[in-house]
Amino acid sequence: MAHVKMLGAVVGDIIGSVYEFQNTKSTEFDLFTPWTTFTDDSVMTLAVAKWLLEDPAHTIHDLICCMQELGNRYPNAGYGGRFRSWLGEYDPQPYNSWGNGSGMRVSPVGLFAKTLDEALTLAAITASVSHNHPEGVKGAQAIAASVFLCKEGASKQEIKEYVEQTFFYDLNRKIAEIRPGYRFDVSCQGSVPEAIISFLEGNSFEEVIRLAISLGGDSDTIACMAGAIAACCYEIPDEIAEKCNNILTDDLREINDDFMALVERR
C-alpha cells in the first residue's frame, strides 16, 4: 500500500478516543482497541479542512456551513452540549467559550497558511464562530502557530519561546510532573499548554501521542492537538496511519486526502 498521509490531529484523536473516559496514567497502552474510533475532534478538524479546500475567501458563513454540515452528518461523535445545540441552530452565534474545541479543530490552518500572520488570522476566525472568549481564540492561535512554525522548520526551542512570549503559557514543565495531579480539563488554558509540552518532550510521533494520552483528562483532544504539531516534525508510522485511515468513513477520508494533497501543492 502507498504511504498514507493523515492529518496528525485525526490520528491523535482516534488513538485517544478510548482513553477520554477511561483514562490511563501510563505511556504503556494499546494504540488501537476494538472500540477505537474517531470523535468530534476529527469531524471538526476535517470541517475546517473542508472550509479551506472549498472557500478561497475564508468567510465565516462558509466555515459555519462546513462545520454544521459535517457535525450534523455525525451527530453522535461526542460534542459538548452547548456545541451540539450550536450545530442545530439556524443562525448560530458564538457563546464565549474558552473550551479546547477551538484548539482541537484548528490545525489545518497551520498547514494551509503561507505566513504566520495568516495562520493567526485564520485561527481566530475558526475560533470566533463559537469559542470567541479570549482564551478560546488564544488556544486556537497557539496550536495553529505551533503547527505553522513546525511545518516551516522551526526548532522545538523556537516554538517554545514563541508560544511562551506570545500566549504566556507555562511550558517549563515536564509530563512526569504534570501527570500525577492532572485531571479532566476541557479549557484551552488547561489543555493546550499540556498538548504543546507533550510535543516538546516526545522524540517520535508515537511517543508524543503516548505522552499526551498518559496525562489522563481529555485524552483524545490533548492527543489531537499534540499530534497535529508532531506530524510536522515526525513521520506518522505507516501502520498507524493506515489503521487510522481505515477507521475514517469514506467521506471523511476523502476530505483528509484532498486536504493533504492541497498542502503538498502549496
Overall structural class, as computed from helix and strand content, comes to mainly alpha
- Rg over CA atoms, rounded to whole Å, is 16 Å
Percentage of residues in DSSP E strands? under 5%
Tally of DSSP helical segments: 15
CATH topology: ADP-ribosylglycohydrolase fold
| Spans of at least 5 consecutive residues with low confidence | none
What number of domains? 1
Helical coverage, percent range: 55-70%
Average the pLDDT over all residues and give the rounded result: 97
- The run of helices and strands is HHHHHHHHHHHHHHH
Shape descriptor reads globular
CATH homologous superfamily heading: ADP-ribosylation/Crystallin J1
**Largest beta-sheet characterization:** none
State the total count of DSSP E strands. Answer: 0
CATH top-level class: Mainly Alpha
Please give the CATH architecture: Orthogonal Bundle
Structure description:
Helix content is 60%, strand content 0%. It is mainly α and 266 residues long. The chain has one domain: ADP-ribosylation/Crystallin J1 (ADP-ribosylglycohydrolase fold), CATH 1.10.4080. Helix 1 (8-16) packs across helix 14 (238-247), helix 2 (40-54) packs across helix 15 and helix 12 runs antiparallel to helix 13 (219-230). The two termini are 25 Å apart. The model has no long low-confidence stretch (mean pLDDT 97).
